[in-house]
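chain below, 261 aa
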Amino acid sequence: MYSAFDASSLLVTVVIALRLSILSALLPVISGRSVPVLWRIALAVVIAAAIAPAITSELENLPTSFNWEILALEAFQSIIIGALLAFVVGIPFAAVRFAGQVIGVQIGFSMANTVDPQSGGRASVLSNFYYLLAVMFFFASDAHHILITAMIESVRVVPPFTEVFSVGGSWYILSEFGSFFVIGLKIASPVIIVLLLVSVAMGFIVKTVPQINILVVGFPVKIAVGLAVLGLSMFFFGSVFESVLGSMSAQFDEILLILGS
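prediction:
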């Protein structure tokens, strides 16, 4: 009994697995230190093996013979593609972390940073809160399906063993780098504006009644007002974050078009 060995399907599986491995190393939740590296690699290989047969038949001009130079170049290009797609996924989560850091500084929680189990470093309590909330929205809105679709399209638009326009992709990333500051400020703006008004009001109170110890009175007031406004802003957090996730598909299409040009 003989079984046919499909080298093309195996090749596409390896390419997709390599690109997914970079994504799994940076994807929220599973990118933390608490998730073993072997689990991330296994997840990438399983997803790659599942989607490779569906797109292998669509690819043309796959090489029939290989050497280490061709394989090394393809591995390098796959790492570039995976890293660029991972950057697009990371923008919303970097934005919410930035928003949490800014709000924590305004309220006064930045003086009590905690250990972040995901990265092993120190992070603000509100930064972790926004990050975990964003992760729940990410999976609840099926944005991870957009990510898998983008990975499939990356193999179609930029097939294995074809030249990748990495310079254009790098310039695109640089142009989009400042977007997470804009998103973060949109999320944090209600708390920032209200606490700025509170600071102005306390400044008038100090000038009017200098006997008041503003450091003793100001901290509890800013914490109470800040947390109240933060709770009210949660009604708008979902719509803002979902609009950011909605534009992720267009960003994937744009960067893949640049890489394949």
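Residues 106 and 192 are 7 Å apart (CA to CA). The longest helix spans residues 68-107.
thats it, cya
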